[in-house]
Amino acid sequence: MDAFYASVEQKDYPNLRNKPIVVGGNPEERGVVCTASYEARKYGIHSAMPTVKAKKLCPELLIIPVRMERYIEISNQIHEIFAQYTDLIEPLSLDEAFLDVCGSDSIEIGLEIKHKIKQELDLTASVGISVNKFLAKLASGYQKPDGFTVIEEKNIQKFLNRLPVGKLWGVGPKTEKELNRIGIYQVHDLLKYDERILVGKFGKKGIELLNYARGKDDRPVENKYKRKSLGEECTFAKDTDDLTLLKEQIYQQCEAIVKKLQEGNLLVRTLTVKVKYEDFTQISRTVSFSGYTSDLKLLREASENVLVKKISRDKKLRLVGIQVSNILHPNEPMQMQLNFDHML
Fold first, then answer.
1. Is 97 within 8 Å of 182 (Cβ atoms)?
2. Do 212 and 161 touch, CB atoms closer than 8 A?
3. Are 165 and 210 in contact (CB under 8 A)?
4. Exposure of 74 by Cβ count < 10 A (0-12 exposed, 13-18 middle, 19+ buried)?
5. Residue among 26, 50, 21, 25 at smallest CA distance from 36
6. Where are the domains of the chain?
7. Do 300 and 251 meet the contact criterion of CB atoms below 8 Å apart?
8. How far is CA 316 from CA 57, 59, 245, 275, 325, in A?
9. pLDDT by residue (tens digit) across 55-69?
10. What CATH number does domain 68-225 carry, 3.30.300.180, 3.30.70.260, 3.30.70.270, 3.100.10.20?
C-alpha cells in the first residue's frame, strides 16, 4: 500500500487530501513519524523521523494521531480482496503481503487487485510481479506510488544490474557503506567481485547477497493468513427500492458465501448486511447467532430479517452486500456457551 496510514486518514477525512500530513506522535512528547503522505515526503520527511524535526522541515505540516484499530480494519478488508484470488498469502505487515498465484494469470490478477482496492476502499496500491519473493518485493517498490511493475524471467539480470546495491534484500545503510568501501556500488559491481573475499568479509550473508544479485530466491510464500470475514456485494446498474429484487440479491450472496464456507470447512457466528444509498451514504447492521453455523437457510433468514426490519429504504439503494465474520477455522476450539441461570 502507498503511504498506508496517511492515505487512510486522507481517505476518511477528504479535507486532508493533497496536504502534507504525517501520522505519528506529539512533537512535544518526543513523538516520531509513523507514515508521511507523499505531499510531506517532498520536504524530506520520512518514517521514524522525530515529529518535531518534521515540523521544522514543513511548518504547515499536519500531525495526525495514530488510529491503529482503523488501519487494522482496512488491512483486513484488503486481505479479503487478496483471498478472492489465492489462499497462499504471507503478510509482511498491515500494508504489505506476498501472494502466490502460480498457474494463474498473475498480470490480470495484479491489475484486478489494484482496481478493487481503489474502487472499494479508495486507496492506491503498488503491485510487483515476478518469479520469486525478492524480485516481486523489489518490483512493488519500483514505481511507487500507484505502481505496477513486472520483472519477467528473461529480463531479471538486466533489471538488477542497473540498481544500487542498497536495493538488495538485507542491505541496510551499514552494509551498504561497507560494500561501497570495497568498491561495490551497483549490483553488477557485486557480481564481478571475488566470491571468496565476499564470504570472508560477510560470511553466509555474502552468499545471500550474490544469490539476490543473480535474482535467486527459493523461499516459498508461507500461508500465515486466516480469513476473518467473507463477503459478497452487488452494485446495481440502476438505483432501486424494489424489495423483491433486494431479497433475491442477498439470497444469491448467501449461497455464494455458504459455498465458500463449505469449501474451507468454515463456520461463522456473525452476519452483517451493508447497503449504500443513491446519495452514496452507507450503513450496515449486524446480528450474531447463538452458535457457529454454515446453514444456508439460517443465513438467508437472518439477512432477510435485517434487510426488512433494520435497514431503512426511504432512499433508493445502489449497493447491497452480505458479510459473515467471527469465523471458526478447522481444528480451532469452539467456544462453549454457558447458561449461568442453570448452574448451581
1. no
2. no
3. no
4. buried
5. 21
6. 4-66, 68-225, 229-325
7. yes
8. 49, 46, 12, 10, 27
9. 999 999 999 999 998
10. 3.30.70.270
State the chain's mean pLDDT as an integer: 90
Answer yes or no: same fold for 4-66 and 229-325. Answer: no
96 is catalytic: yes
Phi, psi of 243 (to 5 degrees): -65, -35
Q: For 63-87, what is each residue's pLDDT tens digit? A: 999 999 899 889 989 998 998 898 8
Contact between 65 and 36 (Cβ < 8 Å): no
Are the C-beta atoms of residues 74 and 53 closer than 8 Å to each other? no
State yes or no: 341 annotated in a binding site: no
Which of these is catalytic: 29, 39, 80, 96? 96
Q: Which residues pair with 154 in a beta bridge?
A: none
* CATH assignment, 4-66: 3.40.1170.60
Closest CA to 112 of 137, 90, 81: 81
Q: Please report how the helices 68-82 and 4-12 are oriented relative to each other, as an axis angle in degrees rounded to 10.
A: 100
For residue 282, CA distances in Å to 92, 191, 279, 318 come to 31, 56, 9, 10
Is 293:258 a contact under the CB 8 Å cutoff? no
* C-alpha cell belonging to residue 344: 448451581
Return the exposure string of 249-269: e unless at least 16 CB atoms fall within 10 Å of the residue's CB, then b. bbbebbeebbebbeebebbbb
Q: Which residues pair with 277 in a beta bridge?
A: 317
Q: What span, in angstroms and rounded, lies between the C-alpha atoms of 193 and 181?
A: 13
Phi, psi of 54 (to 5 degrees): -60, -40
Instruction: Write down the CATH number for the domain with range 229-325.
Output: 3.30.1490.100
Distance CA 84, CA 14 (A): 29
Q: Are strands 282-293 and 268-277 parallel, antiparallel or unpaired?
A: antiparallel
Which amino acid belongs to residue 303? Answer: S
Are 78 and 225 within 8 A, CB to CB? no
pLDDT tens-place string over residues 217-236: 999 998 876 777 888 888 88
